[in-house]
Amino acid sequence: MAPSEPSLTEVLGGRGGAVDATVPVAAFVLAWGLAGALGWPGPIAWGGGAAVLAAGVVAVVRLRGGTRPRAVVFGLLGVTVAAIVALATGNAADFFLVRLLGNAVSALAWAVSIVVRWPLLGLVVGTALGQHTRWRRDPDLLRGYQRASWVWVAQYVVRLAVFLPLYSAGAVVALGVAQTVLTWPLVAICVASSWPLVRSALPEGHGGIRHPR
């Protein structure tokens, strides 16, 4: 790979965002479990409050570190909605319902994007590199993005396969553990494996993701 050619790991970023997503989950499970063990009233409210507070702290840290405000707001909003849903239903497991639905929608969206030849990975990378949709006119690069996008579909399917039985059983602690274990490790795997899969579709001498033909 040429020195000027960025890897997809550099373009897509590391696992920081995925790690951030697990902090509010851990806060919810710990506060909910502690409140229940101590007999405090409203354990879901304690869990939800702890989750939103944790998400707020993460948001402040990321804003100070230069993360885009929109991404920070979306993260905080997602946790807030999850807490509201759990409070409204009175079921602690419903704190994970938003994420569960999000994984289902994401799996479908990524799969459809591949089938219609607008792979979402290409859109994400193209936008990050300021190429917009120029990469689509390169059949080799398009094929590479399609191959790599299937890895991202797989991560959502794996999460659903684990989350659905746990959600049906109301296993809040297990859901929290699964959310942590299956968030940043899967994202790290997807980011790390995306470049080799894209590269496998490019012929010798191709300019790479920065230089669509």
From TrEMBL:
Q: Which organism is it from?
A: Pseudonocardia petroleophila
Task: Tell me the protein's name.
Answer: DUF3159 domain-containing protein
On the tree of life, the source organism's domain of life is Bacteria
Which key words tag this protein in UniProt? Membrane, Transmembrane, Transmembrane helix
* Pfam families with a match to the protein in the record: DUF3159 (PF11361)
Q: What is the lineage of its organism?
A: Bacteria, Bacillati, Actinomycetota, Actinomycetes, Pseudonocardiales
Under InterPro entries, the record lists: UCP010219
The signal peptide, as residue positions, is none
TM ranges are 21-38, 44-63, 70-88, 108-129, 150-175
